[in-house]
Design goal:
Shape: elongated
Structural class: alpha+beta
Strand order of the largest sheet: 1-5-2
Helix content: 25-40%
Number of helices: 4
Low-confidence stretches: none
Order of helices and strands: EHHHEEEEH
CATH superfamily: Ribosomal protein L22/L17
Largest sheet: 3 strands, antiparallel
Strand content: 25-35%
CATH topology: Ribosomal Protein L22, Chain A
Number of domains: 1
CATH architecture: Alpha-Beta Complex
């Protein structure tokens, strides 16, 4: 079972968000939230908000145990870019690009470890 959360049109460049997302990919939920809490910058706050939303979705909608969740997938992709103009010298204009991002988070439950049957046990079964 998996729980997802999405934040679209976040006013920050995806190139600034990707290094923060790399810190928590594959980590346990509690460990990921701790890392994001102590990571400086606006990007960690935005990603923390989406991870908390995914955890709430897992707990409330899918009845998953929050202690067994981990960050399976986290993507920060480029969203639409807003184009603005700034007046320049001698009647020229310079373009300003205000970049946005889309943040996707998927949490999954850890699977129970499968016990391996040893070779000796296999021979006895035959």
């Amino acid at each position: 079972m998996e729980a997802k959360a999405v934040a679209k049109y976040v006013r920050m460049s995806s190139s600034k968000l990707k290094p923060v997302a790399d810190l928590v990919r594959g980590k346990d939920l509690n460990e990921a939230l701790t890392i994001l809490k102590f990571t400086p910058g606006k990007g960690s706050e935005l990603i923390e908000k989406v991870v908390k939303s995914a955890a709430a979705n897992a707990e409330n909608n899918h009845e998953m145990n929050p202690d067994e969740l981990y960050v399976a997938v986290i993507n920060c992709n480029q969203g639409p870019t807003m184009k603005r103009w700034r007046p320049g010298a001698q009647g020229r204009a310079g373009m300003i690009l205000k970049r946005t991002s889309n943040i996707y988070v998927t949490l999954k439950e850890k699977e129970a470890p499968v016990k391996k049957v040893e070779e000796a046990d296999k021979e006895e079964v035959r």
